[in-house]
Amino acid sequence: MKGLPLKIIDKIEEIIGAQFDEITLDFLGIIPKLSRNKRIVFTTTRSNLTSLFLQALGHRKPNQDEEDTLKGCLRVAANYIDALKERTQARAVQTANAYAQETFANNKQIAPSKIRKIVVEEMGKAQNHLKLIVNSETNKAVNTGTALQIQKVADDVGDKDPVVFFLVTKDDKTGDEEWILHLLPDRKTPRLWYLSEIGAGYHKVGDPNPKLPGLHPNCRCKITYLPKSFGFGPEGKIKWVELDHDEIKEQRKAHPLPR
Amino acid sequence: MSMDYKAKYKEMRAQLIKSSDLAFRLGYEQGMKDAQVENMQMQMEQQAQQMAQQAAMMQGGQPGQEGQPMSEEEAAMQEQGGAPQDKQGMEQAQMEEEQEMEPGQGTELDNHINELESLVAKGEKPTVTDLRKAVEALSNVRKNQKAKMKANKPAVATAQKKLVDSILGKWEKESKMTAENLEELIATEGLKL
Q1: Contacts of A154 (CB under 8 A, 6+ apart)
Q2: Residue A138 in contact with residue A52, Cβ under 8 Å?
Q3: What percent of chain B is helix, strand and coil (3-state, nearest 5)?
Q4: How many CB atoms lie within 10 A of CB A209?
Q5: Which of A179, A211, B37, B161 has the most Cβ atoms closer than 10 angstroms to its Cβ?
Q6: Residues in chain A whose beta carbon is closer than 8 A to a beta carbon of chain B?
Q7: How far is A136 from chain B (nearest CA, A)?
Q8: Residue A176 and residue A227: Cα distance in Å, rounded?
Q9: Which residues of A touch B191 (CB under 8 A)?
Q10: What are the φ/ψ torsions at residue B102 (nearest 5 degrees)?
Q11: Cβ separation of B182 and A112 shorter than 8 Å?
């Protein structure tokens, strides 16, 4: 059964691939596969995943471990986008080819506008997935960069396992998991965690601990450091309590871990 | 199969009263213990104050200024302790609570029981309309809360949000351009379909 000529299939794949590649470069700032064995040069002048990570690090030059962490984040994001690119190409070619086979079987002429429509539809479907990837990967990069910076600051003051909490954007989109894992039952005071308790993977509903990439794909919660001697007032605001104050111990006595 | 709701109600009420009595007794006993400990502490404090006063008098100080002992009446009241008065007061309060609680609860429950009995007598099944209404009311409350939060919160444009918006904006723009170019590209490549 006759289908689309191979040249048209190539062209569809090329068009879709080119758009994905350009977006990947814009989003990541670099193509991590090209710089696998090279010392990479960073810039924060343009807004991209790399610059967000470096901003979270406090605009300083990353050390080798931090650079590797960044490359890991970029690699994961690039792989997700690559997978989406290949799936979009396959779906667009499959749909266009099926249309061509049906048209030829009925001895009719293929309409280029129809093929264009198929490609547009597939790009539209890919947009929702792209949004998901971009949102979750940016949050992950920002929180990972911030966690590295927190670790550095805590090391400087002799705090081996720093206490952290998440700044929650409270509005109509705030998820149920955030109310449970990021806030106390009063819905004002942040729930405290040791940095070692924060997971690095993707969160599943019902998990006992929060995660660096967030609690859901569009999570906007930002990780923050609570130094020793500081605690929370009745309105959930940070305040200095006393020199030896350990807020997390006090909090966990009054509010044990939710899961 | 019909159910005797009145008997069920009476049984539950009896259980409630029984558990309330038990809780009250336990609370009362704990209160007594606490009162005894408190009395002992106060007596010790009083003795210490008296000793301090005597010492001050020996040194020629003024006893009325610091560490002044309590009057005999106050001391007598403390020695007796608040327990008997507390006991009477608590019992009275409980009686009052019961008197206040029972008519209200009974009336509401009785109304529901009577309603259910009349339905059962007629051979009709009780509906779940009220439950459904309650669930709808709860979901409306949640919706209103969300709408209220939405209205009050200004949009926050973080660097992260700006990046996401710019990437998606570019994607949308270029998708349209790609689509426009596709027909043209097919024509220029000279691919005859």
Answers
A1: A160, A161, A162, A195, A225
A2: yes
A3: 80, 0, 20
A4: 15
A5: A211
A6: 5, 7-8, 11-12, 15-16, 19, 22-23, 26-27, 47-49, 52, 55, 100, 109-110, 112-113, 115-117, 119-120, 123-124, 127, 130-131, 134-135, 138-139, 142, 169-172, 220
A7: 10
A8: 27
A9: 5, 7-8, 11
A10: -60, -45
A11: yes
pLDDT the model gives residue A189: 94
Out of B167, B175, B179, whose CB is closest to A26? B167
What pLDDT does B59 receive?
58
And the tokens for B170?
């570019």
Look-up: residue for tokens 């064995």? A37
- Contact assignment for B159 to A52 by CB distance below 8 Å: yes
The CA-based dihedral angle spanning residues A88, A90, A95, A101, taken in that order and rounded to the nearest 10 degrees: 160
Tokens of B160: 């992260």
Helices vs strands, H then E, count in chain A: 6, 5
Encoded tokens for B112: 């529901």
Residue B75 amino acid letter: A
Mean pLDDT of the residues in chain B = 68
Residue type, B190: G
- Counted residue by residue, chain A has a size of 259
pLDDT in tens, chain A (259 residues): 677 888 888 888 988 988 898 888 888 876 655 555 555 555 545 688 888 888 888 888 888 888 888 888 888 899 999 999 999 999 999 999 999 889 888 888 878 888 888 988 999 899 989 998 998 888 888 899 999 999 989 998 888 899 999 999 888 778 889 999 999 999 899 999 999 999 988 899 999 999 988 898 778 888 999 998 999 998 889 999 999 899 999 999 999 999 8
- Residue numbers in B near A131 (CB within 8 A): 164, 168
Give the Cα separation of B132 and B130 in Å (integer): 5
Find the length of chain B: 193
